[in-house]
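Title: Comparing notes on inverse folding

I've been comparing how different people in this forum approach sequence design from structure. To keep things fair, I'm posting one structure and asking everyone to reply with a full sequence. Here's the target:
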């Protein structure tokens, strides 16, 4: 068996404003990656180490993430080209050697794949996330290159935030509006500033450059893990795994771990806190909330998805859908909170 590869599955996410595009589509050539857009390097940070997530899967120690890579239309256009020899070249070429015959034998392969994505809630609004059939392969060496850098940048984000809250001149450099500054200065407990964060990067053979550090409840973990499960269940992957060792990160388990640790940092006592995933109804990422709800509950933590307008607070407890809420996983963006103060109890 050849050296291990990280097999990642593509997620395309467009921001809620028309001038913002965030994507981790990684089309690749035979030998080198072509990156027309930023790759999403997901990093889930937690407030402490060593805590156990209730009901966490025993495989939580596996060492890979999932992302994406080759458009099905491109594959169809190349169906007439000779397939590479199965044991020659790169992991991508070997995948193609397996994929081309499968497509030629089953002409609805791509169509069935897209139907499976929709059934699994892998949509952004009405658009399917991944019209791709070829994975992007990340070597163990690349993973080891990305990991320490991502963790360091995330830690720097924590330090800069704490320093800014203690220094008026530094805080002013963030150019926050008064209502944003008031929210930023709310007591933050003893935990981390950002429970879950994501780095948007350009990963090239000779360099690693970051375009953005997103520390405000970024999307992607639920989508990526589910998409990875679907790719991993393909008969092609079973064949591919006979030659290459393929691993996957348990992203939802790590996210849940981070959320529960944050809850504990704030003094939470429940072993299975009731979680509310909160954002506006109708946002295109609502499907990911439903994915995370199902995965969190499978790990033993009760979870519901609610609109901020569904929340009620009686001065002692927060409730939604008739249930007392212990932990809010806020997916509402700060600019949306500021724009609708009456609906967010500001």
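Reply #1:
Here's my take.
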């Amino acid at each position: 068996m050849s050296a291990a590869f990280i097999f990642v599955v593509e997620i395309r996410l467009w921001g809620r404003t028309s001038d913002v595009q965030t994507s981790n589509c990684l089309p690749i050539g035979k030998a080198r990656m072509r990156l027309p857009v930023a790759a999403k390097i997901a990093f889930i940070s937690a407030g402490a180490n060593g805590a156990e997530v209730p009901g966490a899967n025993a495989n939580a120690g596996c060492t890979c993430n999932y992302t994406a890579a080759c458009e099905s239309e491109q594959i169809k256009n190349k169906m007439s080209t000779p397939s590479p020899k199965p044991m020659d070249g790169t992991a991508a070429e070997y995948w193609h050697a397996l994929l081309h015959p499968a497509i030629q034998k089953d002409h609805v392969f791509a169509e069935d794949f897209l139907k499976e994505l929709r059934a699994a809630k892998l949509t952004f609004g009405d658009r399917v996330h991944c019209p791709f059939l070829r994975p992007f392969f990340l070597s163990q060496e690349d993973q080891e290159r990305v990991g320490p850098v991502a963790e360091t940048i995330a830690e720097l984000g924590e330090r800069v935030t704490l320093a800014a809250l203690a220094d008026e001149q530094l805080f002013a450099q963030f150019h926050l509006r008064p209502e944003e500054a008031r929210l930023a200065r709310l007591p933050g407990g003893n935990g981390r500033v950002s429970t879950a964060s994501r780095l948007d990067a350009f990963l090239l053979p000779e360099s690693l450059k970051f375009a953005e550090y997103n520390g405000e409840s970024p999307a992607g973990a639920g989508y990526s893990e589910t998409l990875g499960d679907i790719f991993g269940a393909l008969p092609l992957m079973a064949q591919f795994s006979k030659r290459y060792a393929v691993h996957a990160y348990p992203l939802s388990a790590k996210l849940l771990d981070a959320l529960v640790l944050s809850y504990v940092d704030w003094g939470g006592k429940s072993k299975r806190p009731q979680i509310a995933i909160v954002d506006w109804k109708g946002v295109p990422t609502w499907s990911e909330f439903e994915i995370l709800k199902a995965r969190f509950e499978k790990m033993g933590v009760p979870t519901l998805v609610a609109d901020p307008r569904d929340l009620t607070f009686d001065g002692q407890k927060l409730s939604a859908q008739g249930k007392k809420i212990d932990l809010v996983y806020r997916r509402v963006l700060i600019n949306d909170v500021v724009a609708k103060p009456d609906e967010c109890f500001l």
